[in-house]
User: Fold these one by one.
Assistant:
Number 1:
Amino acid sequence: MSLSRTTRVIACLATVTALTSLTACGGGGDDAAGKPDGPVTLTFWGWAKGTKDVVDAFNASHTGIKVKFEEIPSGTAGGYAKISNAVKAGNAPDLVSIEYPSLPEFVSSGALQDIGDAFTEADRAKFLPQAIDLTTLGGKNWAVPFDAAPQAFFYRKDLFEKYKVTVPTTWDEFRTAAEQVRKADAKARIATFFPDDPTTFEAMAWQAGAQWFKAGEDSWKIDTADAATTRVTAYWQGLLDDGLVHKNASFSPEWTGSLKNGTTLGYLGASWGAGVLKGTLPEQSGKWAVAPVPSWDGKPASGMLGGSTFAVTKDSRNKAAAVEFAKWMTTTEEGVKARIASGTSSAFPAATALRPTAKKAFDASFYGGQDIYALFETAGASIGKNWSWGPTTGTTNTTIKDRFGAVTAGGPTLADAVKAGHDATVAELTRRGLKVEG
Amino acid sequence: MKARTRAAALLLTPFFLLFTAVLVVPIGYAVWLSLFTEKQSGLGFGGAETVFAGLGNYTAALGDRAFREGFGVLLGYCLLYLPLLLGGALGLALLLDTALARARRFFQLALFLPHAVPGIIAALIWVYLYTPQLSPVVQAMEAGGIGFDFFSPGGALPSVVNIALWEWLGYNLIIFYAALQAIDRSVLEAATVDGAGAWRTAFSVKIPLLRGSLTMVGLFTVIGSLQLFTEPLILSRGTGSAVTSTWTPNMYAYSAAFDRNDYGLAAAASILLALTAALLSFAVTRLAAGKKDRKERTA
């Protein structure tokens, strides 16, 4: 060897360092695997409101399984990136929260494991069928649904009365109401278009009967140019062009500010939004009410906006325990009660039998004691059954979000944004080696 | 001799340890990652298979309009930012150089302070100041009849440049000021004796003597600009602004990894960006060195 001593020392040290840093990334996350007799320790990552209270309640009442909860940022705000990285590095937690739209992407990247054997037919029968459909991909079960998230329209009851605006039941009436609101107060708008959140827009398309991602035998059909999507796109473009809605980022300080000072009178959201508003605007308690989201023909119709599921990561050796804990959170009275009694969650359980429990646990005084769960019940049953999510939601939604931001009067339109999302989706599916039409 | 070698090895060890752990290994891993891609079959729910892609990820990145447009944004950014930064910092440094001693110390500190604020905090503060319904600045502008939407497609670039200026003006001002202080006072006295006023001294004596600092600051700024990430990322998330998630090449890599789950593409994009930065630094330093050589030869 012609290497000098120094070089060899350095090379040796370099190798040692490299090896240490590699091993530091592996392992972890399954401390209990070596001692099957003791209690199983699960790690669980999530961000939904009230999760900590649920975990505490579980740990207090169970001895066989101990859950270690770590709060992560919400999915698209960085939570999903964190989960993907952890799975890639081999130190993912056992159980993670994933919203319906992102579930197929995690499944297709191989980050999760099939839980069909632990989450049985009998378990699945307890849930809203739409929620089970959205978590069953390629004939396998990948997650335990927690909430169904039917759309809802939250509005300032006091200001609607003051401005003599009737609560709209159709989208035509919604436009009329929007005009009345602006006439009554030039600075006020009935609701907000969220350029940063394509899922709100997608829920509208879903409600109208669109079906963007169709799974065939072994190929995908991407269809965003159907009549339903076109109708929704044109409608919202009209509201934006005529200045009938605000255009602000969702949950941004400007959105909250406009709610606080009464220049935004309504919020087109979903069931879980009831808890968010209550937590954000405590001083407006009693002034709000909930109505079904307007529909095209006046009959109940809903898309689904968000909604969480619990999935087991691919390397977890505690599948049985993780699914048991997930089932406890979603299908037992104690589990649901613990979350909603925390006061910040208005989740609408996908497990149908637990809705009375949720209703009883939720303090609806913010909505003047209105029976909001009865409203969610009707809306939940009307969730469109055709919609499913594709394995490239990340690409689809990032592209649409980027284009929504550039939508301006005389510039690019919402239709351009949807088209761009379509093209990016087809390109990404092709790139991954999948067959696609559209 | 042997003892000296051993001492050198010992003293160099900490450096090489860190150098390996935080630079060589990650770069090697990125290069490795960039050669692979994930392929799926059927509907894609059977999990992914990692296959060797050769340079496939590189051609995919270069073939993506969003990635190429990112470099266009960087070019536009440099064209707008560099003159403003150099001009502003130089002008202020010259002003400071002529100001009263006590005012000097105050302004030096006041102008440098923004640099002590981390980029991410600065971006958050500015997002607040850009937001129409919240910002006193936008409201004051509107009251004065100036309507400017910082989040619009046309406003995106100026918005980011403004944040960067706020952060970096004071820092570069200090560099220029230090260089001005280093100018031999006898040269300035000679200029005064020859009857040059403050303007004449600034343009004919001070600025020519600052050429070295100007080149250095310009070079560092351009190379730093290639890494543009934090400020536009904050603007792109949660504001509904026209800054897209692939606005700069760095953001493209980030979005490829964390929005699209495509680590191979992200690694390839990062390496392409790093190569651009390396080539640019090499070219500029060679150019600067060549100029210096010629100057020394003619002198």
Number 2:
Amino acid sequence: MLWDALTLQLGYNATLVAVGATLLGVSAGVTGTFLFLRKRALVSDAISHATLPGVCLAFMVLVAFGGDGRNLPGLLAGSAVSAWVGLLCMNWLTRNTRLAEDAAIGAILSVFFGLGIVLLTVIQTMGVGRQAGLEGFLLGSTAGMLWADALIIAAGGAATLLLVLIIRRPMTMVAFDPEYAAARGLPVHRIDLAMMGLVMAVTVVGLKIVGLILIVALLIIPPVTARFWTERSDRVVLLAGLAGGLAGYLGAALSASAPNLPTGPIIVLVSFGFFALSLLFAPVRGVLAAVLQHLKFQRRVHIRQGLLALAQGQKIYEPLTLRLLTRAGLVRADGVATEAGKARAAKALRDEKRWEVVRADQAHEATAALYDGLRDIETVLTHDQIIEIDRQIGGPQGVPT
Amino acid sequence: MSGEEFVPLSLTPLLIGTFAAIACALPGNFLVLRKQALIGDAISHVVLPGIVVAFLLTGAISTWPMMLGAAGAAVVAVVMIEAIRRLGQIEPGAAMGVVFTTMFAGGVLLLEQTDTSTVHLDVEHALYGNLESLIWLDAVGWSSLLDITALAGLPPELSRIALALIGVTLFIWLFWRPLKISTFDEGFARTIGIRTGAVGMALVITAAIAAVAAFDAVGSIIVIAMFICPPAAARMMTNRLEAQIAWSVVFASLSAIAGYVLAGYGPLWLGGADAVSAAGMIATMSGLILACAALWGPCRTRAGAPSTA
């Protein structure tokens, strides 16, 4: 059943939804990346909630002019207008009053959503038939998706992607260093607005599939996921698009494969699955990598300290140190150093003495700052410098040579 | 309007709405000042899965398990946000966005998977509550306020939200000094021995309790709006914390009362037949108040910042 869904064999509607969700996931992931890098991820929450009054007003206008209240382009246009108004209000609040951005986001989000709820109840009491579809915009409803709806979503998604492609460079620059961008003569405020406009476009396009509450997830989770895997912004954009698209595709397929699996939430949960995997297993930034890194560091410290103890003839009691040294073949089971162990220990003690000289010498100040008790001195000083330091230390004294 | 009609039908929803608004606005003052305003948003989203899980475990709509479930979900969310922020080195806003959307999606999915057709539990209810239905059927007029048997028939939500309000007020009153100092100057607070981490956590938990109690009665829209709008509007009115809190209480009560009255009677005045959502109207009113404060409030601009861009 799931395989049928994945290969788009589950009928017309399921195929439409899967294709639409994939496109939506890609454009949301790509657009959300810039928002995330700009550290304004939650702005999308305000934008998406601000679409509701527009949807309701558009419905009322459509009905008042005798049209079908569920005309998707009309509703989407209305939602875009009110989201834009919300966005401008939010920008105005942050720029012209003392409110911080988070308070402005929360205020716009709750007030616009509250107004939308009021309008929803007004519509319910208007007694016009077929208003049932409007609640679908809260959580998305893919059951009745039509070819025309899918076309709108596809066209909107493609247009958004194209726009991102065109203004990706200024957006990246503004995201990383707004002051520098301003100094270069870029209109930072307008680029920010353009970024928000793109987010708004994605939100509007996604209303039908995942609904206005959950579209935020598609804008935030894929970029965060992608950020784990790379340090380069262009790759983050690509990976976020990939993660979003995959989540959309898999989520739509999963939800089509069994009853009672609403598309929007499933897509979000699949997306979170990717995030959790990345959080745990990503190289370098993942939790597992960090744990391994820590263990490796711990082992180096223990071996180093063990060698110094050996060199000074002290007995080692610490079990982990002993185990590590034994495994490396540096001490025997009874705690006595092997030949290799003696050599490594002597070298360790000598290096420690060399570092002592380096750290006491003002001329080596920059090098001395690198001392952390683990770094091999050969990696920071040249061969000649080490010979010079050894000359300062000198040979054994007070014994006949 | 006469007491016979007002007391049973409108008095309790008005009181519940006002108490809920104040209970959320009080901790909201500190959250707004600490730039943690969106905690309220996150909490009100994650309450849904908590309530659904509590329903699945007990199999019935009963209040205390649901409150516990909601509070548990709020704690889980706060812990998850913190864990993701630290383990993944992700900025707090994005971590919050990841957690609350996922938990909300989980709640919706659970709700769809279980058969809740026999009980009154759905997403719409969670979003905008049912303030209008909290009526006091035993009352016959103002005299019922002194009648013990009639008072026993008060909706239980009223006593719960009143308790929550008392709890929140007590917390802020008792911890006034550490709260104030750690909100404005965390470094100084630490040097004089205030455990700022514990104070911050206690504030978030208090906010969660207020949110859950209010959510039970009025839905999550009011919760988010009241956490942010009255304190934000109050912030534009004054530079003193004491005055700000007083203003926020005034604004919260004002939006609750005006919102409820407009939702209940506004459509009738305009010639409509049915009332509109009170929760939505209260949120809208708080937004109007905020807009007025942002346009004309005496302290609306940042001190020292250029007045217009």
